[in-house]
Amino acid sequence: MSDTRIIKKRYIFMAIVFVDLALLLVLLPEKQISKQIKPEKLLQEINDNTRYFSTDDVAAKIIESDLFIQPIDVRTPEEFKSFHLKRAINIPLDSILNKDEKGKFVYDYILNQEVKSNILYSNGTIYSNQAWLLLRRLNFKNNYVMEGGLNKWIETIIKPQRPPVTASQNELDKYSFRKAASMFFGGGSVNVASSESSAPAPVIKKKAMKEEEGGC
How far apart are CA 88 and CA 94, in angstroms? Predict the structure, then answer.
């Protein structure tokens, strides 16, 4: 990817950030705004990219049955039902700030705690980044984003490409891990929408669906 495209993508994301922040300030009462993270700190966290988990990291933690991570699918229930990561739970983006009759966030016990690392994901990273932004603006802790979303998951974990013979040992080792992970997750039969704007639900064949069930 060229430097120009990288810069363009960053400007687009920053524009989304400022629009989301403006909407959030309008929707939240003054009392809750006072508890939020400072805008300058939020922008620093956006730029340092510490919110990202790689697909390799996520795959390794799921395979190892790491109980200290929780994949969270922020897509629609229909997309989630069609295909989702093992052990994932579904909290759609448009429900993430839902409140109960007492005015408390319904998912506060999941999205604002200090035990597990929540890994938010969507088809790409637009929706998961928006979810992270909303939660981080509220100063919720332990929320991260799977870099590249399900599109990159398919590319790197489900259907990894063999590196050239001239590849480094590190690349060869990574490929070996991804091939093993692909077998674990029932790879080779999953298709996920590449776009997040009015994208159709991901499609998964029956064989892989059996492998990826769980975490409803």
Answer: 17
Look at domain 51-216 and name its CATH class.
Answer: alpha beta
Is the CB of residue 79 less than 8 Å from the CB of residue 198?
no
Two tokens at 159? 């259907």
Q: How buried is 185 (Cβ within 10 angstroms: 0-12 exposed, 13-18 middle, 19+ buried)?
A: buried
Which residues are CB-contacts of 125 (< 8 A; sequence separation ≥ 6)? Answer: 145, 146, 147, 148, 149
- Angle at alpha carbon of residue 153, lines to 179 and 110, rounded to 5°: 120
> How far does Cα 114 stand from its chain's mean position?
18
pLDDT tens digits along 91-135: 999 999 999 999 999 999 999 999 999 999 999 999 999 999 999
- Tens digits of residue pLDDT in 38-74: 887 888 888 888 999 999 999 999 999 999 999 999 9
The pTM (predicted TM-score) of the whole model is 0.75
CB neighbour list of residue 163: distance below 8 Å, 6 or more residues apart: 171, 172, 175
- Distance from C-alpha of 163 to C-alpha of 11, rounded to nearest angstrom: 32
Rounded CA separation 165/133 (Å) = 41
What residue segments make up the domains of the chain, in order of their start?
51-216
What is the Cα 215 distance to its own chain's centre? 16
Pick from 123, 104, 115: which is nearest to 195 by CA? Answer: 123
